[in-house]
Amino acid sequence: MTLLTRWDPFREFITLQDRMNRLLRDPRGPEGQDESLTTTAFAPPVDIYEDEHNVTLKIEVPGIDEKDIDVRIENNTLTVHGERKFEKEEKEENYRRVERQYGSFTRTFTLPNTVDQESVQADYDKGVLKIKLAKKEEAKPKQIKVNVNSEKQGTQKTLESKGPSKVA
User: SS3 for 39?
Assistant: First the structure.
């Protein structure tokens, strides 16, 4: 099975920097209060599976408009970038708890050499982004039929049935 790996060496640093920025921000200003609720980096969960024809990724991105999602393939790397925007309809002081994450995200996957980068399909339905990566024809498994030559077996059987020959 081919594995797609996610690599983001700076993710922990970005989270730390975000927390430090929120700590040092002026809480009295309207921007400071709004920013504390809206900006965070997050990584939506991804399921990756493979069959003989495709490698498929399913990324959970509920509440994100399809226009706010960018999918790119460059140098054998698949990058999915998006942003979940904070809904301004409710005033922050009415919130008792904010558990959903808002802000931008980037997920990066190194593609195996078996993927045909020209045959990529992305569909967005009910909050799930499904990216289907077709495999190259030469990478697909091929079944080889084993032929049994019955004439040789028949000839071999007739020679064995005559019995051993006498040598004079």
Answer: coil
- Structural domains in the chain? 5-159 (2.60.40.790)
Tell me which residue has tokens 């921000």.
25
User: Residue 108 has which token pair?
Assistant: 């990066």
Per-residue pLDDT of the chain (168 residues; tens, 9 = 90+): 566 656 667 667 777 777 777 777 645 444 444 444 445 567 899 999 999 899 999 999 998 888 889 999 998 899 999 988 876 655 566 667 777 777 888 999 999 888 998 899 999 999 999 999 999 887 667 788 898 987 655 555 544 545 555 554
